[in-house]
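#lab-general

N.A. 3:47 PM
ok so I finally got the sequence cleaned up, no stray characters, all 355 residues accounted for. can someone with queue access submit it? mine expired

B.Y. 3:52 PM
send it over

N.A. 3:53 PM
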Amino acid sequence: MPILQADDIADLITTTQRNLGEMKWTDLSYTLQEHIALPQLLNKNKVSFNSGTGIQWNLMVGTTGATKETGLYATDSVNVSDVMITANIPWRHITTNYAIERREIAINRSPAQIVDLVRIRRHDAMVDMAGFMETRFWRRPNGSTDTLSIYGVPYWITWTDNAGTAPNGGFDGGNPTGFASGAANVDSGTYNQWRNWCGKYAAVTKDDLIQKWRRAATFTNFKPPVAQPDYQNGNSYGFYTNYNVIGSLERILETQNDNLGNDVASKDGRVLFRQTPVTWCPHLEGRAGDPIYGINWGAFRPVFLSGEYMREEGPSKASNQHTVFVTHIDTTMNIQCVNRRVNFVLATASPDVSA
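B.Y. 4:20 PM
back already:
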C-alpha cells in the first residue's frame, strides 16, 4: 500500500481547514533591512515640537571683540556689534491613509476571521510611510523650487564648496545644490561657521580613510567654552555607510587580530569607530562616492508641528462611497540641523542625490 499524506486524502482536504496561523502574518512588503531615520522620527524623547508658520532658530556667528589687555586707570572703550542672525526652514506635510468597506468588517469577524483586516490596513499604511520617510531622509530637495520634500541629510551635510569644488579635508561643505541662499537661508559663503566638514578619500585603509575619519571626528567635536541655552543636546554621533566600506573595515579588523578562532566572519557587525558602532545604511548602497556620514544627533533632529505628530483622523465615511470608511494619518514636520559644523561626510566622489 502506498504511503499517504494528508494532502492525498480528498475527503480530509474537503472537510478540514489547514492551520491558518490565526492573527499573525509574515510581512514581506518592506525592502529595507534596516531603517535609520524611523527610530529618530518616532522617538518623542528626541524630537522637537514647534508652532508658527515655519521653523526658526538663532545663530551666534561672532563676538564683538571687546577683550583686550589693559593697564591701571586705562580708559574704557565699550563697543557693541551685531552677532546674531536667524536660520529658518519651512514645514513639510506628509500623509498616508487606509480604507475599509463596512461589509468587509462583517465578513472578517469571528469565527471566520483569520487576521484582523483593519489592523492589516493600518500596518500597510504605516510600513509605507516608514519606507517613504527613510527614502526622503537620505535625499535633499530638488532645489529651492521643491516645496514638497523634507530637508534630508545631503541638504545639511554637503561634499563640495559653493563653487562645486571637491574638498581638501576641512570645513568646505557649502550651500546645498539648488539653494543659492544656503541651508536654512544662511549663506555659507558669508558665514564660514555655517559649513560642515567634508573630505575626499581614495581607499578604505588605515592611512587613508581611517586617518581622515579620525581627523574629521576630532575637528567637528566642538565643546562650548561657556554654558548657554543651546539648541544642541550634546555630542551623540552615529556613523553611516554602505557595504563596500563596512566590508573593507571588517577585513581590516580581521588583519589586526591574531586570535580569530574558527569563525570565518568573526568581525561582521562589530565595526566600531571611537567605541561607536558603524551602521550599514541600505539607502547608501549604490550611492556615488561610498560615503561615510558622521551625524551628530545632538544637533540633527526631526521637528514636528505641535498637534500634528502622526495625527490620525477617522475612520470617517468617504464622501462618495457611503459604505467605505477612511482613516488618514498626517504629519507636519521637517529635518532640522541646528549646527552644521558638528557633522561631516567623507567620500571618494560627490554622494549628493535629490528627491
